[in-house]
Design a protein that fits this description.
Blueprint (H helix, E strand, L loop, with lengths): L7 H137 L2 H18 L1
Length: 165
C-alpha cells in the first residue's frame, strides 16, 4: 500500500525536484519554445499573407484576362464588320464597273450597228443609182438610136447651159 500513500519526504522532494525542473524549463526551455512558436506563427502569418497576395494576383490576372478577351472579341467583331463593309464596297465597285463596261459595250455596239446601217444604206443607194444609171443609159441608148432624139437632147442641153450663164 505504500505505493498508494506516499510519505511526506517523498512528496517534499518531488515538489523540490519539480520546482527546480520548472525553473530550469522556465529559464531556458520556455523562451526557446515561445520563440519557436512565435517563429512558427510568423511563418504561418507570412504564408497566409502570401496566399492572400497570390489570390489577389490571380483575381487580377483573371480580370485582366477577361478584359483582354472581351477587347479581343470587340476587335474581332470590328474587324468582321470592316471586312463586311470592304466586301460590300468591292462588290458594289465591281458591279458599277461591270455596268459601266456593259454600257460601253452597248454604246459601241449601237455605234457599230448605226455605222453598218449607214454603210448598208449607202451601198443600197449606190446599187440603186447604178441600176438607175444602167436603166437610164439603156433608155437613152434606145432613144439615141433615132437621129431626131439625139438632136433634141443636144438642143435641150445647150438651152440649159445658156440659162445657167
Amino acid at each position: 500500500m505504500e505505493l498508494f500513500t506516499p510519505d511526506f519526504g517523498l512528496i517534499f522532494w518531488m515538489f523540490i525536484a519539480f520546482g527546480i525542473l520548472f525553473l530550469i524549463l522556465w529559464r531556458f526551455a520556455w523562451p526557446m519554445i515561445l520563440k519557436s512558436v512565435d517563429q512558427r506563427a510568423d511563418l504561418i502569418d507570412k504564408g497566409v499573407e502570401y496566399a492572400q497576395a497570390a489570390q489577389e494576383q490571380l483575381a487580377n490576372a483573371r480580370r485582366d484576362a477577361e478584359n483582354y478577351i472581351s477587347e479581343a472579341r470587340r476587335e474581332q467583331a470590328q474587324i468582321l464588320r470592316d471586312a463586311d463593309k470592304m466586301k460590300t464596297q468591292i462588290v458594289e465597285q465591281a458591279r458599277v464597273a461591270a455596268q459601266a463596261e456593259a454600257q460601253k459595250v452597248m454604246d459601241n455596239a449601237r455605234l457599230q450597228i448605226q455605222q453598218q446601217q449607214k454603210e448598208a444604206e449607202q451601198q443600197f443607194r449606190n446599187r440603186v443609182s447604178d441600176f438607175a444609171l444602167q436603166i437610164a443609159g439603156r433608155i437613152v441608148q434606145n432613144q439615141m438610136k433615132q437621129d431626131k432624139a439625139q438632136q433634141q437632147l443636144v438642143d435641150s442641153m445647150l438651152d440649159e447651159i445658156e440659162k445657167n450663164n
